[in-house]
Amino acid sequence: MRIPALAPLLAVLAAGACASQGTTTDRGGGPAPQPDHDWSAVAAALRAEGRLLPDGTYRVDVPRKDPSLRNEFGFVVPPSMVLTYAAFAGSPGDATVMGDTCALGEEVNPVVDALRAGDVEVVAVHNHMLGGEPNFVFVHFQGRGDALALASTVRSAWDQLGRPHPQPRRELLPPPALDTAELRQIMRLAGATTPDGTYKVALARPRLATTLDGRPIPGGMGPACWVGFAPCECGSTMIMGDTCVLRGELQSVIDGYRRNGIRIVAIHNHSIGTVPELVFCHFAAEGDAATLARAVRSVWDGLEPPEQGR
Question: How many Cβ atoms sit within 10 Å of the Cβ of residue 246?
Answer without folding.
Answer: 16
